[in-house]
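Worked example

This section walks through a single chain of length 92. The input is the sequence exactly as stored; nothing has been trimmed or padded.
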Amino acid sequence: MNKTELVAEIAEKADISKEKAGEVLTAFTDEITAALAREDSVSLIGFGSFTRRQRSARKGKNPQTGAEIDIPASNSVGFKAGKALKDAVNNR
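Given that input, the structure is written out below as tokens.
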């Protein structure tokens, strides 16, 4: 499912226009992004939690040449599924 299809489903289920559903989805993703940028986590009970994770600097190898390279430290986003989501995916 892509964003357009998700917006259409939200609009239908919430009985709102697709334009309004698109605005809601954009606001939702923008707020999650902003919270993670502030190093806050976002927990949606039953669905899951988004957290900011830090990766340490490390050594790696260039797969083409085999030369050792330095990989800088970086941040990434982690998602841990909640119980209700896990159960829905596993049809329990």
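What to look for: The beta strands are 42-44, 48-55, 58-61, 68-71, 74-81.
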